[in-house]
Specification:
Blueprint: H1 46-75, H2 80-103, H3 105-112, E1 120-122, E2 132-137, E3 140-147, E4 155-161, E5 171-175, E6 181-183, H4 186-192, H5 204-211
Antiparallel strand pairs: 1-2, 2-3, 3-4, 4-5, 5-6
The structure holds zinc ion (ZN).
Zinc ion binds next to helix 4 and helix 5.
Length: about 220
């Protein structure tokens, strides 16, 4: 449905273009105006900027929780390092709550479910291992690793949830030599594979990698 720009949302008070009586942030009311991909929008676009902030914030929150868990498990709850991570996590949670207050829960949840607009790269301590590249897929933080392909499936990625329930991944997402795509998650295996356009239909993992132009 097309809405005239001058029409206001039902139930909303009339408001000038500057939103003088509105929330402190104009971002909260800037919802996607067209189905055009967010990545195609200018980086100064307020909605795109808000989505990036939310996705990045969520990944940092997940990383902070994982750091604290790992430190507690390895060093115990009262070790100075654990203490450091606990304080860091509290700080990150406060920032996350501020972002939620600024944008509103609805915008925040919508941003979490947008295809990834940003990646978070963590460099490993100097042991020569590659840096960790994280992306947010449907609100969950995943580590992404390109794995060597085969003749049949030249492009392959392994996606590992940062918080891993044992039954949940890692997933292998690939593009086959004939251009079709597949994933080994439950959504693809049970709901997509058998359908007519299965080899062209994306699960959330394929959609995310496609949005990044990685597959
Ligand atoms: Zn999948």
């Amino acid at each position: 449905m097309r809405m005239n720009r001058s029409e206001r949302e039902p139930g909303m008070p009339a408001r000038g273009p500057t939103g003088a009586q509105g929330s402190p942030s104009s971002i909260a009311r800037v919802m996607p105006a067209s189905p055009r991909s967010l990545r195609d929008r200018d980086e100064s676009d307020p909605y795109r900027h808000a989505v990036e902030l939310v996705q990045r914030g969520r990944m940092i929150l997940d990383v902070s929780e994982a750091d604290l868990e790992a430190s507690e498990a390895a060093l115990g709850p009262f070790h100075p390092t654990t203490w450091y991570f606990r304080n860091a996590l509290n700080e990150v949670r406060r920032s996350w709550d501020r972002l939620r207050a600024e944008l509103g829960t609805k915008t925040l949840e919508a941003a979490l479910n947008q295809p990834p607009l940003t990646v978070l790269t963590l460099s490993e301590p100097a042991n020569g291992s590659p840096s960790v590249v994280l992306v947010l897929i449907a609100g969950q933080t995943y580590r992404t690793q390109r794995v060597s392909g085969t003749e049949l499936a030249p492009i392959q990625w392994r996606l590992t949830r940062l918080h891993t329930p044992l039954e949940d991944g890692p997933y292998y997402v690939c593009r086959l030599a004939d251009g079709s795509t597949q994933c080994d998650c439950a959504e693809w295996t049970y709901r997509i594979a058998e359908t007519e356009n299965g080899l062209k239909t994306h699960c959330k993992h394929l959609a995310a990698l496609a949005a990044l132009d990685w597959i």
